[in-house]
Amino acid sequence: GQNIDQPTEMTATEGAIVQINCTYQTSGFNGLFWYQQHAGEAPTFLSYNVLDGLEEKGRFSSFLSRSKGYSYLLLKELQMKDSASYLCASMDSNYQLIWGAGTKLIIKP
Amino acid sequence: GAVVSQHPSRVICKSGTSVKIECRSLDFQATTMFWYRQFPKQSLMLMATSNEGSKATYEQGVEKDKFLINHASLTLSTLTVTSAHPEDSSFYICSARDQETGDTGEQFFGPGTRLTVL
Description:
The complex is a heterodimer. By secondary structure, chain A is mainly β. In chain A, 0% of the residues lie in helices and 57% in strands. By secondary structure, chain B is mainly beta. Chain B has no helices and 11 strands. In chain B, the strands form 2 sheets. In chain B, strands 2, 4, 5, 6, 9, 10 and 11 form a 7-stranded mixed β-sheet that branches. Chain B has a 4-stranded antiparallel β-sheet with strand order 1-3-8-7, with no helix packed on it. The N and C termini of chain B lie far apart (37 Å).
């Protein structure tokens, strides 16, 4: 079956670094997406990885290991506005996104 | 980035009525649009994939006669919830993929429609 696993909730301190992990099992693989979703709002795109390695984009970086079925999202210099849910999604062989349940990130002052 | 609008943003209706939700890609053409439903504290659940000019593909367990999808143009898809019941109350989100970026392009999400059925 197809499955995406990510932690339900994480807590971090403003200014710190946090890593959100995601493991996936999908029928075929056409890339791994990370989205940010604030409460009551639609998701917004953060990153897309299809090759192994680290993609850096400002304070956010995303890593992929296809052999391990593993990805992480790294957030640096955390700000209060980063409090949100972070959704991991794997694109399967039919180009459909298989979504994780999301990780709720709580930032404390 | 590309913009997707959704209308209405919030709707409250009586049980048994039908509700239409519009999803528009404002500055790009989308041959494929997706309709999702999200219950509180749960992940996005794909309901159907809408292709311009053809019938939508529904996910298992989604009643196509209850959730009518029309993708009449490259910039507009509509979802009609027919004979809505309280259990249909949810956050409905559409997304669109820019036809220029192909199948692996990112999906751009609309702001969502919160439906409450009394």
